[in-house]
Specification:
Structural class: mainly beta
Number of strands: 11
Low-confidence stretches: none
Shape: globular
Largest sheet: 7 strands, mixed
Radius of gyration: 13 Å
Order of helices and strands: EEEEEEEEEEE
Mean pLDDT: 94
Number of helices: 0
Length: about 110
């Protein structure tokens, strides 16, 4: 399974971005798709998770501002990020769990300027 993330960039405080992550390869059964982020020197943290059953889980810091969704037909997961804050600045990684195995995308940098 290969994951290609895109959509990162530079945005001002209060702005919006939409991240996309397309999965390709031998995809049999996706259990969950999600987004994580990492700041240099800190651990990678979960931002938003979407299970195959449609359940979502968000980090408290992004609730009400970020929305995760997926396009089942294209095996693509999205992260709509609104009301961005400087503290959202990080490298964002998509993750797909398929048959119990986790796969990571290459990361896309999001920078929010104050």
């Amino acid at each position: 399974v290969q994951l290609q993330a895109s959509g990162g960039g530079l945005v001002q405080d209060g702005g919006s971005l939409r991240l996309s992550c397309a999965a390709s390869g031998r995809i049999f059964s996706i259990n969950a798709m999600g987004w994580y982020r990492q700041v240099a020197g800190k651990q990678r943290e979960s931002v938003a998770i979407l299970t195959v059953g449609g359940s979502t889980k968000y980090a408290d810091s992004v609730k009400g501002r970020f929305t995760i969704s997926r396009d089942n037909g294209n095996h693509t997961v999205y992260l709509q990020m609104n009301s961005l804050k400087p503290e959202d600045t990080a490298v964002y990684y998509c993750n797909v769990v398929s048959l119990g195995v986790g796969y990571w995308g290459q990361g896309t940098l999001v920078t929010v300027s104050s």
